[in-house]
Design a protein that fits this description.
The chain has 188 residues and is α+β, with helices and mostly antiparallel strands. It contains eight helices and four strands; from the N terminus they run ααααβααβββαα. A four-stranded mixed beta sheet has the order 2-1-3-4, covered by helices on one side.
């Protein structure tokens, strides 16, 4: 990470810290707020947290690495979170997680090489009646079955392809027939 980016992360971290009320200044709450801001805990942010709290940065890392809610790499464009709450676990959450790992080619806690997907297990998403549940981005997928994973991935690929085609269409400008019509008006 370049020094300019590191300085930006440190400055943004200071702003997050300044926004906290005194009663919110315990280390776990601070780390939660910093992660909410960045989507993960950048090294520069943890250094700034340590400096602001007057503790060594290894203490910050030690606390952050103890809890599985904290991540040290940016999440993918499509973060996949598989619920492992009691209802989801009983209804096959572990199997759902394994299928996601297989289809994405990553393990829990990792991000795909193209940075499109990250995969995590979460304690509970509060949708127990829909168990088992997986979140893809902010979208809840209830009643998950292993066979639905491929369909969800296909829908994302199709959505991205449609967006890419639309962007290409917009950046290409008007088609030849429109350009010819405009030239005809110029000569009239």
């Amino acid at each position: 990470m370049g020094s300019d980016n590191g300085e930006r992360v440190a400055e943004e971290t200071r702003q997050v810290l300044e926004s906290l009320a005194p009663e919110q200044r315990n280390l776990i709450t601070i780390l939660q707020k910093v992660q909410k801001h960045f989507g993960y805990l950048p090294r520069e942010a943890m250094i700034e947290v340590a400096r602001s709290q007057g503790i060594h940065e290894t203490r910050v890392y030690s606390v952050a690495s103890f809890y599985n809610q904290f991540r040290f790499v940016p999440p993918g464009k499509y973060p996949v979170k598989v619920c492992m709450g009691t209802a989801c676990h009983i209804k096959g959450g572990d199997n759902i997680l394994k299928v996601w790992e297989t289809k994405l080619g990553i393990r829990e806690g990792e991000v795909t090489e193209d940075r499109k997907f990250s995969l995590d297990r979460v304690a509970c998403v509060g949708c127990c009646a829909m168990a088992p549940v997986a979140l893809v981005g902010e979208e809840v997928h209830g009643g998950m079955m292993p066979t639905r994973v491929e369909g969800i991935l296909l829908a994302i690929r199709m959505k991205e392809e449609a967006e890419r085609a639309q962007q290409e269409k917009e950046t290409a400008g008007p088609g030849p027939e429109i350009q010819e019509g405009a030239q005809g008006r110029e000569h009239a």
